[in-house]
Amino acid sequence: MKNLKKTAVFLLAVAMIFSVLAGCGTQQENNAPETTSAASTQNTSTVAEDPLKDHMEISLAMWGIGEALVEGVQDAVRDQLFQKLNITIKPVNVTWDDYTQKIQVWAASSQLPNMFAIDSIGTQNYKNWIEQGIVHVLPDDLSPYPEVQKMMNGNGMDIYKYPMGDENGKFYAIPRLNHFSVDDWSTDNGMQVRKDWMENVGITKEPENMDEFIELMKAFVEKDPDQNGKKDTIGLTCYNADWLTWFMSAYEPGMLGGINWVKDPENSGQWIPAFMTKNALEGLKAIKKLYDAGGLDKDFATLKSEEGRNKYAANKAGAYAHDVTPSTLSYVAQQFEKNNPDKKYKDVVTVLKPFKNVNDGQYYRLIANPAWSETYINAKTDDKKIDRILRLFDYVLGEEGYNLIHFGIEGTDWKKDGDKIVLTPKKDASGNEIPVSTTYPFTKCGFIAEWSGTRQWTNPSTEPELQKMSSDLNDWLQANAKPIPTDLRVPLLDVPDKDKATAKFQDIVIKCVLSNDVEKTWNDLVKEYRANGYDKLIEEINAKCAELGIQ
Amino acid sequence: MHISMKHNKTTGFDAFNSILMIVLAIIAIFPLYYVVLISFADYSSVQKQLIYILPTSFNTEAYKLVFNEKLFFNAFLVSVFITVVGTVVSMTFSTAASYALSKKFVPGQKLMFTLILIPMFFSGGLIPYYLTIKNLGLIDKIWVLILPGAVNSFYLILMKNFFEDLPASIEESAKIDGANDLYILYRIVLPTSAPVIATISLFYAVDRWNEYYGALLFISNRNLYPLQLVLREAVLDFSQIMASTIGAQIAQSNRATYTQGLQMAIIVISTIPIFCVYPFLQKHFTKGIMFGAIKE
Amino acid sequence: MNSAAVTGKMMNKAPKKNKSLWDKILKYKYFYLMFLPAFLLYLLFTYVPMYGIQLAFKDLNFAKGIMGSPWTSMHGMKHFYDLLSNSEFIKAFRNTLVISLQRIIIEFPIPIILALLINEIRKSRLKRIVQTVFTFPHFLSWVVVTGIFFNLLGDSGVLNETIVALGGEKIHLLTQASTFRTLLYGTDIWKEAGWGTIIYLAAISGINTELYEAAIVDGAKRFQLTRYITWPAIVSVIGVMLVISLSNIMNAGFDQIFNMYNPAVYDKADIIDTFIYRRTFITGLDFASSTAIGLFKSVINFIMLYAGNVIVRKTTGKGIY
């Protein structure tokens, strides 16, 4: 028996050693560099040569690209794009479910495609990939790609310089714009209210503070605003608890849109995460007041994906906390009009202006980093390919490319009417409009270079009155509201403990609102977060800010 | 085989038991009923009602959409292939291995058992696993969904346990007649082990049918997606997954929208087929539980 | 080859028994053959990648790979230190243990009892139908099932409507930390108990019916039949299932909890796996950290396997080895 056990242990050791050796073998495979890079740097394109001379195959990993580039399917948009740039894009599919994991695994096993999309700025990966030579630096001279250059020099884009804060820093990421400037985020957090219900309950003045809002919500619950004889309506619902930050502009503006870093009024201007201020507590108390008064959906903590939106669109709730961008307004309108075929959403909705801040009487509007997610180029890609990739971006960031991959073929699917674009959709046998993404699957990945939020107020495919509603609110906010008092660089600073920044607004608001004592819960939460890394993090952030001169 | 009892009358206990079982069965069947119901229902009638228990509408829109979509059809075939081939492979390897493990007199048996026990607990992590698969050339090949998970230690242990409990007499008499161990396994032991074979086959089959994680990691070719992966895309709620509110928003607005009816139809199609296998296997492990059965 | 290696080592350790051992191995060669395919699979897909465990003690460098990555500070223990000094992790760890143990006490016996009850059904048709229907919920994934539960248990769901109709106050089970675990166990039993009966029914169906006949002839009552014939036959299966359950103590049901929980119940329901999952998406928790946690869980699970086996062997005479 003993002999057998010893044998077992010995053999296991042999097995382990064997596997370690196997590991060494595979790693050596990884470290063998691609042969192309050294040779091709000799052949950088000269001025005289046509930069698009050689056909190139570029592999791209991006959400859902497998659906957009299916083999054997007719797609004139794809063909036109490929032809224009003399490329073929080879799709490497990732899904929203797995993209981070997949890309990390590929990075660790030399399996990365030529370019890939991921939201990693501010994370350890971003830093590691740059420093360990996984992603390629962008050329210093971006003048051959004017649109790209314009974008990289745009508003709020200095955060993409690495190291951040260094004037001579280099770019490693091509950001994927969600808006053209930090200010365009103004309508990305808002409140939609049924103004027809307001009339039915006899309150026609839009609420301008939390108490008035609570009154209105209570009326929605009690006074049968949908006039169906049943007491089956609730006041406010939301996409999910995250969107309750809208109320925070009146208390702690640094918490509008999420947890930003602000200067602590009680502590000589030290930077702290906004949820730790006394004002934040006031805001949480106000939301609790709303909940206790019955004005907030009791299920707000467990709403699944589109449940809140569906409730609101099905006449079960009178107010909806989400954003008031044209696309969301349109989507709600679609649902609403399915449920109420005799009404138009634009006739029954109003978008609220924010409440005045209770401390300084100001209005605040949301600002945020203009881009969400970036494109990275594999370090092993040769210079010629990098040039072609940048030309691809240059094209789709420009008018011609943008219109192609969003609206289809000029003349067939849309035409220019002076400055504006007018869509000319095809109809199918039953008279329904055929969506562009059906005819040209490539347009499903129209977000190669920018999301659809960038041109949201001029997008021809949005219902014009809803678009105007959103755009008007934006105009008002730009004129009357201050940007939230944060510095967008702070959360992205490179400090050793940055992965300790784990606080989420959703967690905080749900725990506080559903507790019996908001102040105690909030205090305990702050204490816990501090002990689990925030104390260190705050120290490091403030030191770094001092170093970089961030006031 | 029926056992005749002197007293054939149903006792009070029997009545109680039967009623209890029926009540529990209703509770158990409800969600599947609900899912099927919604898959055939009309969107707006569902929204109008508080709780949709009895069908008030009927349309097959969702199913038409699903069957017309090449992606689903492919995924269905892929899943069927993986399940059938996978189960056959798994059972072949597993019955052999666990039978061998059940013989304590074989030298090194303890070691063999330890060898299959360790991987149940210790794993080298994702990166080496990925590299191994890559080096074996299995990335984006259908065999990556069959081979790596072909043998499950837990099921091996269960089968070993069953084999150990078998009376040794049958094997001994075969040995006296001169049969070798392989023959004994395949011609004598297995035919009398129908319950455990049926059970473990069912377990493997269901595992294969429900598998998605391997596909998530190793398959980029949409033609090789199994059904469960497609189902996840349709039904998954990204606001839970994405830490950034903006990220979750963008994810939601940039993927195909699936109505509730469509989601339910996909769920039904992803669930029913494996379920159809069940009755065929059930008879093997309910056979013999006929104590007190009334002659039918 | 496997047997050659075994032979070699054996011969080194026990020279006296040379001849008879080699003879034995030749005699049982078919058994080694049977074991071989499975063994090769394990070797390729589990043992070869096992070198990755060392990543738990390293900081991953993407360019250098696992072998070339540097060891972390604190003698390689930094990842473990980070975790164990985080109060949220400790809470999650505690919850994991408590929930797993409670599951064993509350949920584990149910399929056994159900199997015995099903076994008692006289009409074979009803027996089959009931057993089939009981397995239905297993086939639906938690993603789907929680949607239905949320509908039923929500503020405007059936449960609350009934309560209000009966004159009571609405209850919010989904956000109530104190009753959340009970909710977890109840829904899990509902979903999995029926499927869990299969293995026990399979064991019961292996019982020689002559035993029953002989006992009846001897005048045994119905309950005695169950106690003295049915029960001993399934005890060994129960033992195996129990040991396996104990060895899964660090996995307290991620799929279910992830789909059903929300921040209001984190205190009681957050387990290690859900905690890690959240961190992965907020801070991009890296592979090294997750390998460390994996190792941490594995070690504890393995210890529980051993302990569980000892306990089960002492009480029933037979464990899993």
Walk me through what this model shows.
The complex is a heterotrimer of chains A (551), B (296) and C (321). Chain A folds into two domains: 164 residues, D-Maltodextrin-Binding Protein, domain 2; 241 residues, D-Maltodextrin-Binding Protein, domain 2 (3-Layer(aba) Sandwich), CATH 3.40.190.10. Helix content of chain A is 40%, strand content 14%. Chain A is built from 19 helices and 17 strands. In chain A, the strands form six sheets. A five-stranded mixed beta sheet of chain A has the order 2-1-3-14-6. A four-stranded mixed beta sheet of chain A has the order 8-11-7-12. In chain A, helix 9 packs parallel to helix 10 and helix 14 packs across helix 15. The radius of gyration of chain A is 27 Å and the shape is globular. Chain B is mainly alpha-helical and 296 residues long. The N terminus and C terminus of chain B are likely disordered. By secondary structure, chain C is mainly alpha-helical. Chain C has two domains: 56 residues, no CATH class; 239 residues, Orthogonal Bundle (MetI-like fold). Chains in contact: A-B, A-C, B-C. Chains B and C meet through helix 1, helix 4, helix 5, helix 6 and helix 7 of B and helix 1, helix 2, helix 3, helix 7 and helix 8 of C.
